[in-house]
Amino acid sequence: MPCARYRDRVTEPASRTLPSRARVVVIGGGVGGTSVAYHLALAGELDVVLLDRNELTSGSTFHSAGLVGQLRSDPTLTAMNRYSVELYRSLQTTENPPGWVECGSIRLASTKERWEEIQRQDGWAASSGLELQLISAAEAQKLFPLMTTDGVVGACFLPTDGQVDPSQLTYSLASAARALGVAIHTRTRVLGIDTEGGGLRRRVTRVRTDKGDIECELVVDCGGMFAAEIARMVDVRVPIVPMSHQYVVTEAMFEHRENPLPSLRDPDNLVYYRQEVDGLVMGGYERQSLPWTASASSYDGIPADFNGRLLQPDHDRFVEISENAAIRVPAIADVGIRTVINGPEGFTPDNEFCLGPTDVAGFFVAAGFCAHGIAGAGGIGRVMAEWVLEGAPPMDLWHMDVRRFGAAYRSPSYTLARTVENYESYYDIRYPAHERVAGRPLRTSPVYAWHAAQGAVFGEKSGWERVNYYDANSTVDDEAWRPSGWAGRHWAPSVVPEHRAARETAAIFDESSFAKIEVSGPDAARLMQWVCDNDVARGAGTVTYTQALNARGGIECDFTVTQLDAQLFLVVTGTAFGNHDASWLRTQARALDADVRIVDVTGAWACLGLWGPKARDIVAPLTPQDLGNDAFPFLAMRETTVGSVPVRMVRVTFVGELGWELYCPTEYGATLWRTLWDAGQEHGLVAAGYRAIDSLRLEKGYRVWGADIDPGHTPYEAGLGFCVRLDKPGGFLGRDAVAAQKEAGVTQRLVCLVLDDRSQVALGNEPVRVVDEAGDAGPVVSRVTSGGLGYTLGVSIAFAYLPVEHSAVGTRVEVGIFGEQVGATVAKDPLYDPTGERVRA
Question: Is residue 622 within 8 Å of 674, Cβ to Cβ?
Answer without folding.
Answer: no
